[in-house]
Design goal:
It is a single chain. With 391 residues, the protein is of the alpha+beta class. 37% of the residues lie in helices and 25% in strands. The strands form five sheets. Strands 7, 8, 9, 10, 11 and 12 form a six-stranded antiparallel sheet that branches. A four-stranded antiparallel sheet has the order 1-6-2-3, with helices on one face. The protein is elongated.
Length: 391
């Protein structure tokens, strides 16, 4: 679950991370009032969307008076911001964050995340932070410093001090940076986060440090432990298909391809996607039907796949086990087809409990189905169904 910048800053502030004074605003008048209450001579007005690259896209602007803050907010609110991370459709700006501007001497990148390559928590940092961090890291990976944390209960003080020194900190700034890193680590563990990123962590001209921007991602699988964090979810920022899937306890993610996938089991689903991609096929989605799914939940998931106008064929790859049988999935598919129809080729590879009954259910319902002997055969059928010649 992604958090907005202002939400992440509120949480991190409670852990001692220094942030500029700021306030959220959903109307131009609220933005002007926020600037007046914050005080100072200039402010930064930031569009709040779940995407990076806001600055380059015009979503972050400086204002020199409270009246200017109102004007900037008026231009941003209700607009659609297109960044490198939003795709061409962009994201609608429903709220802005008004923040006191500060004089920055240097921008540093600092993040704590789950390092999948080592299966550990790790810190990443660079003395050259800011908007172009991704490009800089790609051009010169040596500018990115890394500290892998071996003990999830505590940080190695010596290793952390060396990591911070490697980012160019010294003296009091180094002491403060170590404290901020420790705070990020504590918040990361307490919130079951997968990423907390400060970019930039600004070294101000007075020598103090401020988190100018903050990004936080919470592991969805841990939200049952964090009812308070669940309340921070902004559903307007999320894929509506994924929201619908969550309501029906389906694991779903849009991938943008042309072959819809319905699979029971996350591991089997990932293996299916890998096999399709290795054979030049672009999956339209990831879908994992949970072992306890009902026919109605299966039907909803299948309808979601059919609702994607980019889908040219659907591959169902299922293995019946002790709880979810193949015929249950077939019955769910039949319900979906009765409600929505079926206008694309359907390829089914079924194995395990009630495999034969699955075939009978689909056939007896008059659903045009191509049954695959195995996954190699299934991929061949999918490629044939989506080829230009077949069209």
């Amino acid at each position: 679950m992604n958090l907005h910048e202002y939400q992440a800053k509120e949480l991190l502030s409670d852990y001692g991370v220094p942030i500029p004074k700021g306030a959220i605003a959903r109307t131009p008048a609220d933005a002007e009032s926020a600037a007046t209450n914050i005080g100072g001579e200039s402010w930064i007005v930031k569009a709040q969307i779940h995407a990076g690259g806001r600055g380059k896209a015009g979503g972050i602007k400086r204002a020199g008076s409270a009246t200017d803050v109102r004007s900037v907010a008026n231009a941003l609110l209700g607009s659609t911001l297109v960044t490198a991370q939003t795709g061409a459709a962009g994201k609608r700006v429903n709220q802005v964050y008004v923040e006191a501007a500060c004089q920055i001497e240097q921008e540093i990148y600092l993040a704590v995340l789950v390092d999948r390559s080592t299966a550990r928590i790790a810190f990443l940092g660079s003395s050259s932070g800011g908007e172009d961090i991704e490009e800089m890291a790609a051009e010169d990976p040596n500018k990115i410093h890394k500290l892998v944390v071996d003990d999830v209960d505590r940080l190695d003080s010596e290793a952390l001090n060396q990591f911070i020194a490697g980012l160019g900190f010294s003296g009091n700034s180094a002491i403060e940076a170590v404290s901020i890193a420790q705070s990020l680590f504590n918040a990361f563990r307490d919130f079951d986060a997968s990423l907390i990123e400060i970019n930039p962590l600004a070294l101000a001209k007075d020598g103090s440090l401020l988190a100018i921007d903050a990004k936080m991602i919470i592991d969805d699988n841990a939200l049952f432990r964090h009812g308070d964090l669940e309340q921070l979810r902004d559903e307007s920022e999320e894929d509506q298909g994924e929201l619908e899937a969550r309501r029906y306890e389906l694991n779903f993610a849009s991938l943008g391809g042309n072959v819809g996938c319905v699979v029971n089991g996350a591991g089997l689903a990932l293996a299916t996607l890998d096999l399709l991609i290795d054979n030049g096929v672009a999956p339209a989605n990831f879908m994992d039907i949970r072992p306890v799914a009902t026919r109605e939940q299966v039907a909803t998931g299948f309808e979601m796949v059919l609702s994607d106008t980019n889908v040219e064929a659907v591959l169902v790859n299922i293995y019946g086990g002790g709880i979810l049988r193949c015929d249950t999935i077939a019955e769910g598919i039949a319900i979906a087809v009765q409600r929505k129809g079926l206008n694309v080729p359907l390829i089914v590879r079924a194995g395990g409990t009630n495999m034969e009954l699955c075939h009978k259910v689909l056939t007896s319902q008059g659903i045009a189905t191509q049954f695959a002997r195995d996954m190699t055969h299934a991929v061949e059928l999918v490629k044939a169904a989506t080829s230009k010649e077949a069209a």
